[in-house]
Amino acid sequence: MLESQSINKIPIVNNFLEAAQPDTRNGLYFSDGKRKVDYVLAYHYRKRSPPLSTPGALGLAVISNGSYGNPDEKKDTQAVHSSQDVVVDVTPQDAVEEEKMRSREEFEKNLMEAGLEMEKDKENKIQGIGFVRLHAPWLVLSREAEFLKIKVPTKKVYEVKEEGGVMATLNSAWDTITKPLQPKVPHLQSNTKTKYISHSFSREKLHLYNISEKETFFDNATRSRIVYEILKRTSCIRTCQSTGITTLIANGVYDSAFPLHDGTFENTEEKNERQILHQEWARYGAFYKYQPVDLIRKYFGEKIGLYFAWLGVYTQLLIPASLVGIIVFFYGCATVDTDIPSLEMCNEDKNFTMCPLCDGPCDYWHLSTACSTARASHLFDNPATVFFSVFMSLWAAMFLEHWKRRQMRLSYRWDLTGLEEEEEHPRPKYETKLLQKRQKKRRSKRKNKSEPSKEEENGGSGKEKWRQKVLSAMGGESSVGKEKLTWKDRMPGYIINFTSILFMFGVTFSAVFGVIVYRIITSAIIAMSPDPQTKANVRVTVTATAVIINLVVILILDEIYGAVATWLTEIEIPKTEKDFEERLILKAFLLKFMNSYAPIFYVAFFKGRFVGRPGDYVYIFNHYRMEECAPGGCLMELCIQLSIIMLGKQLIQNNLFEIGIPKLKKLYRKLRDKGTAPEETDDNQRLSRQWDLDYNLEPFTGLTPEYMEMIIQFGFVSLFVASFPLAPLFALLNNIIEIRLDAKKFVTELRRPDAVRAKDIGIWYNILSGMGKFSVIINAFVISFTSDFIPRLVYQYMYSETGTMHGFIDHTLSYFNVSHFKPGNAPTLSQYDKEVTVCRYKDYREPPWSPNAYDFSKQYWSVLAARLAFVILFQNLVMFLSELVDWMIPDIPKDISEQIKKEKTLLVDVFLKEEKEKLQLIQSLFLKDQTAQQKAGGVPRRHRAASFSQFSREQRCQHTDV
How confident is residue 821, by pLDDT bands cut at 50, 70 and 90? Predict the structure, then answer.
């Protein structure tokens, strides 16, 4: 009671305040209601076990209730609750908690020495979660902003030059048309014709900056980034021998660290940026609006802002690709009734008798029964498909060029031009591995000594121990600290990586092969069915079920491969977070790329290629024939495979998983906490404040999953688009939902991420560029070898007597004498036994009456030569056009480059003007001094050069004291 009554009189000592009253202003400020909470550290605490009734027993320790001692500093500590000594049971768990408590105390003390101000709640439970709130005062903010070279606006404003003529008219008309699509963000609706010149913050030039109020000069994202930089470099040497908050979290000293959201996202009277983002961006009802990327960047930082800007550009450019794809599809629908090969295949008068699809039970069949498959194939396999493939290859190049220009505009607008990469701190696991290496080396040195001294046997003197701990924790202050992990240290990890990735590839290929075996066996079983209707639908049944199995396997392996990629990257022991992220991205992309596209590659390039011919088929397991393509070709099956896998991944993995799994995790955590909630020792339970609400949200784990799903989708859109022209349309519909889903997740379901500066999207651009070039090769081979486009061209211009497609089906079918069947391969029960002497099969081979019976014919070699020629021509043409597009479209827009030059010139003028004013002021002081001396009748005193230095120091101090 005494403490609660006098808490308001307790002064702030060492920037620390123990909060004992409810927070004001929505829990975003300290108890005084003035200082912002810039960052929050959360930790689990557990008080000592209850006192035993037998004091003096073994395993007991006498400590001061509510306080604890430091083994390295023998100083008296003041008790918070009381000074009465009690006897408690010291269990191993208590010892661990005691060590964590000491580590937290030392780390927080170092934070206060760095200038941060701190507030902490009382630990009024037996066990629970404690929060440490951090606030950065102006002196700390200005110091760190100068160190980090954060660009801030100066007082100098200039007018942005606008384009004139036709472009100005078009831009004005476009702005009028798209005005309903613009989000209602206050700062976006302000005057955009003027811009403040930005310059790296300097405490010596405070008078140049547009500082209206110190507390609001740095926005919340910048303040939290500054505090996070301090947290990353603050050390905890004596108790935990580590540096940085990430290491302490990894060691369990703290549970998490995060900046606070700007209040609730629900509608209240007092608007904040989170509410605006939720209203104008993170709702499905706002799907038609542009994204407020400037506000996203301001709230979440440049890295997340660039992701959503990139996603917006990608989604916008899917609109023209979708329109062209729809036109190509409708062209196929409009010409299906006039397609001569389809009509010939559907013509029952010709009655092409085809060879059996399997040995024994399968009977001969008429080609006209595959009429529906042939007509459906024409929807995706028509002359317009080639045009669409060329268009999509150029579209990919245009997309990358457009993004580079958009990225440059954002870099200029967000003051990222000239951004230097900051030095990153080592990862906790890297430091741990390095510490283990040093300790191992010291132990080996001790063993190598013939006669170790008693001091060495005891581990050295106390001072030596302390020196080694300091050197181990600081890392880099001595010859020991200069050590680093070599390739020998990482070699076991590299070997495990290489073998594991090969094993994962084997798992993927095994899964694909398993589905192939399923298709072959299921086709043979269904073919033995006595039901004619079942036999007629054998291809549809087998294809549909096999693709669904493929989709399930892909979804399962995707989750496994994501965890495996993280584990493989961890054992490589990357030094920095950037190295870790890049290596993780490459591994995850490689594994998920193979997993997602392996079944599609099989259908596109391998199915039906190694079948053999009647009388000499290729078998697996001795009596199961390799599966063949449908009479209309494999392109239709490729289309089905691609569409189901793409739509299934988007619907299940990208949407249901993203919505469902976080909600299930939240429900599980709520039920777990409810079942194990500790009892309050105080009747007054703490109200839920902003840090409580944010702690209950999911932690932010990075942008890699978000980028990865879009990159895999980009592969579906670009790599096999020749087989599925509607892929861009479905990608567009998915992305419209995906943007709002991600936005809702970031605003309402995730803790606020740390604001990270970035000038580009990093390694993802290189992956996109590589996939764009790879798509040219894949589409060339799909058109050439999977579709019938090349065989049709060869027939029309080389073998057709009328120069039309009449007779094309007959031209592509070879003959087989049924008497050449091996024993057991001919149909056992056939209604055509007495009638059929010759059956047809799709291939270019010599007829049985030829001297070279069943060898590849001249037509085969002509078509193969034409296919290879088309691949070379297509690749070179598209690559040339892509390079032409790259050359014609500059990476930096002309107006941006001119404005950057203008800003540099104006900034130089500002500094020259400042120096000129200083010089004029100095000269006026000299003149006043000389005039005063002359009036006094004395000799003018000669001023030394030190006077200028003194004046400069005075001015500098005046600027700093703001």
Answer: confident
Where is 524: in which H helix or E strand?
helix 487-527
Q: For residue 341, give the H/E element and its range.
A: helix 340-346
Q: What is the pLDDT of residues 97-108, one digit of tens each?
A: 888 888 888 889
In whole angstroms, what is the distance from residue 816 CA to residue 614 CA? 7
Helix, strand or coil for residue 488? Answer: helix
- The residue type of 588 is A
State the burial class of residue 723 (Cβ atoms within 10 Å of its Cβ: 0-12, 13-18, 19+): buried
To which residue do tokens 């020629």 refer? 869
Q: How far apart are the first and last CA of the chain?
A: 41
Cα separation of 237 and 646, whole Å?
52
Query: Angle, nearest 10°, between helix axes 220-233 and 138-148?
Result: 80
Beta strands, E only, 533-613: 612-613
CA 754 to mean position of chain CA atoms? 15
236 to 74, 98, 467, 832: CA distances (angstroms): 18, 15, 14, 88
Among 387, 331, 382, 384, CA closest to 789: 382
Residue owning tokens 């690559």? 879
- What per-residue string of b and e applies to 253-268 under the rule 16 or more CB within 10 Å gives b? bbbebbbbbbbbbeee
Task: Give the 3-state secondary structure percentages of the chain, helix then strand then coil, rounded to 5.
Answer: 60, 10, 30
Which region, left, alpha or beta, applies to residue 435 given φ > 0 means left and ψ of -120 to 50 means alpha?
Answer: alpha
What are the residues facing 625 on neighbouring strands?
619
Q: Each residue of 435-488: pLDDT tens digit?
A: 777 777 777 777 776 554 444 444 444 444 444 444 444 444 333 345 677 777
Interatomic CA distance for residues 591 and 641, integer angstroms: 20
Q: Name the least confident of 91-95, 431-435, 581-585, 599-603.
A: 91-95
Tokens 């605490």 belong to 45
Helix (H, G, I), strand (E, B) or coil at 530: coil
Neighbouring-strand partners of residue 42: 131, 256
**Residue 704, class by beta-carbon neighbours within 10 Å (0-12 exposed, 13-18 middle, 19+ buried)?**
middle
CA pseudo-torsion sign 323, 324, 326, 331: positive
The burial of 197, by beta-carbon neighbours within 10 Å (0-12 exposed, 13-18 middle, 19 or more buried), is given as buried
Sign of CA dihedral 748, 750, 755, 759: negative
pLDDT at 305: 93
Kindly state the tokens that stand for 465: 């121990």
Asked if residues 255 and 684 have their Cβ atoms less than 8 Å apart, the reply is no
- Token pair 């983002």 is found at 277
Q: What is the pLDDT of residue 191?
A: 52
- H or E segment to which residue 63 belongs: strand 60-64
Listed range (113-127, 663-677, 867-881) with the worst mean pLDDT: 663-677
Structure token digits, residue 704 = 């890699």
The reported pTM is 0.82
Q: How far is CA 402 from each of CA 234, 351, 919, 938, rounded to the nearest angstrom?
A: 42, 54, 48, 74
Amino acid making up residue 5: Q
CB 26 within 8 A of CB 264: yes
Q: Are 857 and 844 in contact (CB under 8 A)?
A: yes
Residue 842, beta-bridge partner list: 813
The b/e string for 580-613 (b: 16+ C-beta within 10 A; e otherwise) is bbbbbbebbbebbbbbbbbbbbbbbbebbeebee
pLDDT at position 947 is: 40
CA distance 349 to 368: 9
The pLDDT of 752-756, averaged and rounded, is 90
Rounded Cα gap, residues 712 and 707, in angstroms: 9
**Angle, alpha carbons 848-798-386 (nearest 5°):** 110
Q: Which helix (H) or strand (E) holds 62?
A: strand 60-64
Enumerate long-range contacts of 261-264, CB under 8 Å, 24 or more apart. 261/690, 261/693, 261/694, 261/751, 261/752, 262/28, 262/220, 262/299, 263/26, 263/28, 263/690, 264/26, 264/693
